[in-house]
Write a structure and sequence with these properties.
By secondary structure, the protein is of the alpha/beta class. It folds into 2 domains: 161 residues, HUPs (Rossmann fold, 3-Layer(aba) Sandwich), CATH 3.40.50; 120 residues, Beta Barrel (Elongation Factor Tu (Ef-tu), domain 3). The chain has 10 helices and 14 strands. The strands form 3 sheets. It has a 6-stranded parallel beta sheet with strand order 1-4-3-2-5-6, sandwiched between helices. The chain has a 6-stranded antiparallel β-barrel with strand order 9-10-13-12-11-14. Helix 5 crosses helix 6. It starts with a strand and ends with a helix.
Length: 313
Amino acid sequence: MMRTVTALEALNGATRPIVFAAGAFDGVHLGHQAVLAEARRRASALGGEAWALTFDPHPMKVLRPDRAPALITSTPHRLRLLAETGVDGVALLPFDAFFAEQEPEAFIARVCAAVPTLRAMVVGANWTFGRRARGNVDLLRALAAQHGFDVAAMAGLEWGGQPISSTRIRQAVASGDLAAARAMLGRPFSMYGTVVHGAKLGRVLGYPTANVDPHNEVRPPPGIYACWTRVEQRTYPSASFLTAHPDPRKGPPDVVEVHLLDATLDLYDHDIDVCFVSKLRDEERYDTLDALKAQIGRDLAAARAVLAEHPPE
């Protein structure tokens, strides 16, 4: 089971070699997964442990909040995805203005002092660290030679002739290009969030929905989608509705309505993961509840057809 610590000093008593994979890891996309896989490979060769070294919140939320990116994954979602990569643990370091003022040399010295069994760090080739992002791979290699650990800098992966990046994935999701997002993530884009109380109109219509308050900040365009919804360790076929005209009675303005096709569950206050497979249609308005109910029936039939061709991953 993956461990999570919020202070490097928690690893001070480690007896096995430690290999860190360092990065922000927003989205845990295929490029991130390559960095994490190399850390696991090196740790296995050393008979040690592979740990992700990352930060909370995203550094840009502190350094340039006005320019901080919308997040693909919240911290709980990111931790869940990191666990699925097979790392032994995550060092989730609180990032604040004081942390940001550390010179890169001081940060690496702190890491080495806190984790005496550190044997290697694996990073993306463009990874930066320390005050004003002055630290880069060349400086990391020089510091590693001083402190006695190895460095592996992974070249970025490409898709569609360009490097895979969290920025490209955000753009793909926001524009509704779920196929591109899936290709770069290595899995369908998903929204992870908490089920909250709503107006319960779906129940009146005979199609009860779970109203999900998503933790992440990136979302597809409004419309009806075929989805697979993960609840704990099970996955359910479902359809979801994202609206551009939120109803304040249904909770937060970005709430996502999800109808499980073959199950009726009490999901209030549960965290669930809604994986978007394909858009079925745009959002529309209906003059009567009967017309809306008839359209929902057609939407669910369309969702079943799509999901039959795209099993859960």
